[in-house]
Amino acid sequence: MASTVVVIDASARRATIRTTPGMILRDVLQEACNKLGADASRYGLKHKNKNVDLSNPIRLSGLSPGAKLELVQLSRSPSVVSVALQLPESEAHDQSGGRIVEKYPSSTTIWLILRNSESKGPHRNYTARAKTKTEAGGSGAGRLYHEAPVLNIMGRELTSFTELQKTLAQLGFNSGSVLLRLGFRVSDTPLEEAMEQIEQYFKSVSGDEKVGSHATSMATNESVPIPEPVLGEEDKEAKSPPEPKSPSNEEQRPPTTPCTQQEMGVPIDTGFTPSTITGPGQRPISVFKPPESSTPRAAQQAFNERDYEPTVAHAKWHQARLQGSGRNKTLPSDKELAEKENAKAQRVAEIKEIVIKIRFPDQSAVNASFTNLDTARSLYELAKGMMAAQDEPFLLSFRSAKGPQNIPPNGTEKLISDLGLSGSTLVNFLWGEGASLEARAKPVMKENMLAQAKELEVPKNFESEAPEPDPNDTATEKQKESGTARTGAGKGGMPKWFKGLGKK
């Protein structure tokens, strides 16, 4: 029994679609987009503010005749779909349960899923099979014909090579899970012609490649070699195809890895100056005395209370940051992640020398430079050579983006390339569990080193250039009394909700 549904887009345009009980909702979306001039791969359907499962037929969707569906735009980032590939009995002997369950982006084609499943075990061949077929009345060994894969998805068969190039999203699967039943059917196309047609197809696709989930997935398939079948012997293991790339917008994505001063070629102010002090291993070092007061020098510096009060510029920056964090961002593709790793490795390779400051428990410190050839053992040898009690156990730790990390005592890891140290790095000296109380109470460094130590100069803060309020300015005093100076009551003032972000 035929019926109709009405699809309405954002501009209130309508498209009336004639349907049958067995019509798939994905076909309804495709026909509506053709009438409204929209790209079906970028849109979905909603009914009463609920997403419609495009993989269901009309009779299972719960839609009444004449139902009104909303045409809504989908997210540019592909969603994750759990795919279970049900293998035939002849291919399921080495697979538990006869199913291969994997998660794929919704922009992945069915062909790519088959190629990826081939790499999950040895001697698997789903896309380049052949079978001998002899013509009626003929004799001899016969000719090899392509045994094409046939997939059954919820009663719908995908038989042709073109249908296998459809993505999960094009079949209506944007989330959840789906079961693909795999079978094989001997075609009337000779094997060599079928292989040539497949190669020509991917060559034409790569020439017309565009930004988008469908074009990206097909272009990825081109790089996957097609295995050649061998009759009478087990097929060779298929190579694993690369993961499909997700749509990206490189121009709008801000850089995520900040460059250090050394990577930018800017001199680093580390407090290390060439000194006549020669440390262990004939390494030039600078030694600094521990502070005389228990109060840090930074806490003794005078400061201006107004520096901690948020301004209108801070409020605008905070609002812009909240708006930016609330926008949908495209996830980086595999290619972009690989390029990012290569760029990071190149930046690390360009670092030739770093300065490491070892801070001891008594707050004395030593600065030394290390090259890209020095290892963790070199750092421990320097620290041990500076100690008065060299038999006591100790550890060296530094803070990275992942949190505090201990440096292996006898490790052969290089400080720059393996441990990721760059620029000027602070390394903390920590006593081991078996260290004696006597060693903990005494100064860590040797007496001759402490005798040559110098005071650590702390740069003075610049005086605030903000003008002091004029006591004779009555207008300013009245404005302060009325509370309109920074509470946001006046025009262009500070919003009241932003006052809580200041110093408590």
Protein described:
- The protein is of the alpha+beta class and 504 residues long.
- Helices cover 23% and strands 22% of the residues.
- The chain is built from twelve helices and 17 strands.
- The protein has helices at 25-36, 58-61, 110-118, 191-207, 213-222, 297-300, 312-325, 334-350, 376-386, 437-441, 447-451, 474-482, and strands at 3-8, 14-19, 43-47, 50-51, 68-73, 80-86, 99-105, 129-133, 143-153, 156-158, 177-190, 285-288, 353-359, 365-371, 394-400, 403-407, 424-431.
- Strand 3 and strand 4 form a beta hairpin.
- Helix 4 crosses helix 5.
- The longest helix is centred in the middle third of the chain and has 17 residues, at 191-207.
- The radius of gyration is 35 Å and the shape is elongated.
- The termini are far apart.
Determine Rg (CA atoms, Å). 35 Å
Biggest β-sheet, characterized?
A: 6 strands, mixed
Instruction: Tell me the β content.
Output: 15-25%
Number of strands: 17
Mean pLDDT, to the nearest integer, reads: 75
Number of helices, counting only DSSP H or I runs of 4 residues or more: 12
Distance between the termini: 71 Å
User: Which regions have little confidence, pLDDT < 50, spanning 5+ residues?
Assistant: 209-275, 462-471, 473-491
Instruction: Report the structural category.
Output: alpha+beta
Can you write the helix and strand succession as a string?
EEHEEHEEEHEEEEHHEHHHEEHEEEHHH
Shape: elongated
Q: Approximately how much helix is present in the residues?
A: 10-25%
How would you classify the quaternary structure? single chain
